[in-house]
Amino acid sequence: METRKRHRRIRKRRATIFATSLLALIIIVASFSIFQIEKNTQENQRINKLSQNLGLLYKNSFPTKNVTNTKIIAFSTKLTDKKGKIPNKNYQLFKEKLSLLDLKVNKQNAINALFVSPVMLGKTLKTSTVKTSTTQKSIKAVVLSALPKDNFLTHAQKEINQAKKQVSARDKEQNLLQKILTAITQNPTNSNLLTAQNTINKLPVATKNKENQALVAAVQKFYAGKKLIALTFDDGPNATTTPTLLNTLEQDDVHATFFEIGSHIAGNEALLKRQTADGDQICSHTWTHPELTSLTAPAANLEITRAATLITQITGQNWPFYRPPYEAVNQTVLNSVNMSAVNYDVDTQDWEDSTSAPVYSAAMAGAHDGAIILMHDIHPWTVAAVPNIIASLKQQGYTFVTVSQLIYDKAGAIQLHHDYFGW
Ligand SMILES: [Zn+2]
């Protein structure tokens, strides 16, 4: 009896202890879980915050210039600190985002180096500036090995190599251009002017305008304070009369402008080469000498350019000038071709004459600073009048120029679709 009672007591006590222990355990487990939940919430907040920061950075990074490699490295360091402290999948997610961001920034750097550079935009011109330009620095600064290995790398490598070649080629051209511009301030020969203009034409628009101004300034510096006059000869070349005229021009060291009829050139190529060698300017006077205003725009274009192309083939001269026969030009003609018309403001009307005296008188009567004098090298009396015209004009202090030299000096950079006719 006693034993049974004691056993019952013991069982009761054991049950109480078990229940108490169980309760305690439950409480402990519950507390721990609550602590864990709390801890996870804090971690999640931190993760969210980091995520937001990264997300913001990510969102704002491309294509704006706000994200730099420095910022990425800073974030990367922060993320490395979080390793082991945040769930691995989150860590990996951010790492992935970072590398993507890194790629974008490097891509942007590469793109900046290639396209958003001063040289590409033509902001820098002088050789010295180009050499130390941001572009070249940034092209060098694009560390390709730092870029992720994907198709972009191969593409970027090609683009950058190409850009480097372009910059190098442009650098050489700039060098050449600077030399020519310097030479032009000493003597603006037809050949130097043409080389300079053709070099400038290949430059980007912003650069082109600046260098055109430099070209004009060089020409104006040379001719400052001088009275300029341009002798122009139409309707040649002529195998009989033109050589005599060239003898005069060469002897008197005078450079003139010839507007040649394209269909007259065959067989007279040597004359054009001789004119070019002596420093004369040669331009188109159309192929068959039609009244351009009576033609359609494409027909006018063909008339002008057919002769111009042949002249370029023979002489290398590609001045964007033509003289419309009979002075006949209108907006349709001017718009028909990427060139400009060059007319005159002194007409000797030498085609009406048969002797030299009236040609001489007309030239001298019309002579003034900035004049473009019209004559024809197909008339023997005109050719015979030229030595006296030159002698008298020299006596009056005139400097003989080609049409291009006169345009640069009097009107500035060459305008297309324009009608020039003296000043
Ligand atoms: Zn003519």
TrEMBL record:
Q: Record's InterPro entries?
A: Glyco_hydro/deAcase_b/a-brl (IPR011330), NODB_dom (IPR002509), Polysacc_deacetylase_ArnD (IPR050248)
Record keywords, A-Z: Hydrolase, Membrane, Metal-binding, Transmembrane, Transmembrane helix
Instruction: Outline the extent of the NodB homology domain.
Output: 227-401
Q: Does the keyword Membrane apply?
A: yes
Question: Which Gene3D superfamilies has this protein been placed in?
Answer: Glycoside hydrolase/deacetylase
Among Pfam families, the record links this protein to:
Polysacc_deac_1 (PF01522)
- Name of the protein in its database record: Polysaccharide deacetylase family protein
Q: Which organism is it from?
A: Lactococcus nasutitermitis
